Amino acid sequence: MAEPQIDGQEKPTLAFLGPVGTYSHQAAYDRFGSTVTYSERQTITDVFHALSPSVPLALIPQENSIHGAVIDTYDLLRSPCMGKTSFVRGDVVLSIKHSLVVRKGVRLGEIQHVLSHEQALGQCRAFLREHLPTASLVPYASTAGAARALLSPSIDGLDPLKCAAICSRVIVSILPELEILEEGIQDNNVNYTRFYLLAYSDHTAIPPPSTAPPTQRHALVRISYPPGAMAEKPRNQTRLLNALDLYVIRLDRRPSPLPIPFHDVYFVEVEEETMTDPSWTNQVMRGIQRVSKQGGEANLLGMW
Fold first, then answer.
1. pTM for the complete prediction?
2. Chain centroid to CA 179: how far?
């Protein structure tokens, strides 16, 4: 059976970090509702590599306001396909509220192991230190996956009746065999995760948001020195940023995928200074050209 259509076209498919019930799923649904078909993947890497003509959209976590940047995502942004067949085309921000979930009947004092995504574990350090100081922390690919594991006969040799998961409270409506022991266990109530919306091309049609879109535009630029410049000392990153000459709102660094020690790539997110500036796209492209003239490499990874 064909998918329902929007404006005469089939719904686009969007990949997200599954299973159903993850924060990624919640963020995707809050943004797109019923305007896309959802396709869950097991890891952030799987979500990224799902982009294709048949799966033109993907949502991956970029940063948490408590735990910081999502390293897996920035490692994927180093891929040569970024800016060629994969593009950042938007962002989504979700308020995060963590719950401690167990099988029904399990008490707090019985918990010896806590399962969740490493970001969620990091965001609940204070609660875990105070209430479960001796529990081992078991990283999982996703928060919802950790919750589902509680229903297994065994979790890699661990007794599920001595385990808990950190996840969204929505999971208990999906898995009624589970219950919430504690809600709001994150270290900071001002806890948000930002996601990047990826598209298979820079002209992929994206369903409009239900709320008014942001008025200021963003772009993500990846800059580095080419391998041949590594013999040149010092490698002045400030020179490349000055050459870019755009309004920088964040700067991230990761090791280059090239087999060269301490060769780094920088991800520079920029924002237009004047809202709805008709020349802003040209300003970004001119900035990239200036970086090249200074001996650097610059790639436009997305604009939204």
1. 0.81
2. 27
Residue 136 has phi, psi (to 5 degrees) of: -80, 145
Query: Which one, of 82, 299, 69, lies nearest residue 194 by Cα?
Result: 69
Tokens at 69, concatenated:
């940047």
Domain 99-183, CATH number (from 3.40.190.10, 3.30.70.20, 3.40.50.720, 3.30.930.10) = 3.40.190.10
The 3-state DSSP class for residue 30 equals helix
Report residue 4's pLDDT band, with 50, 70 and 90 as the boundaries. very low
CATH architecture of the domain with range 218-303:
2-Layer Sandwich (3.30)
Q: What contacts 226, CB < 8 A, 6 or more positions away?
A: 295, 296, 297
Q: Where are the alpha helices (DSSP H) in 114-265?
A: 118-123, 125-131, 143-149, 171-174, 237-244
Query: How far apart (Å, rounded) are the C-alpha atoms in residues 291 and 221?
Result: 11
CB 28 within 8 A of CB 16: yes
Instruction: Specify the CATH architecture of the domain 10-96+191-199.
Output: 3-Layer(aba) Sandwich (3.40)
How far apart are alpha carbons 107 and 128 in whole angstroms? Answer: 15
Whether 218-303 and 10-96+191-199 are alike in CATH topology: the answer is: no
Closest CA to 58 of 193, 199, 209: 199
pLDDT in tens, 179-208: 999 999 999 888 899 999 999 999 999 999
* Domain locations in the chain as residue ranges: 10-96+191-199, 99-183, 218-303
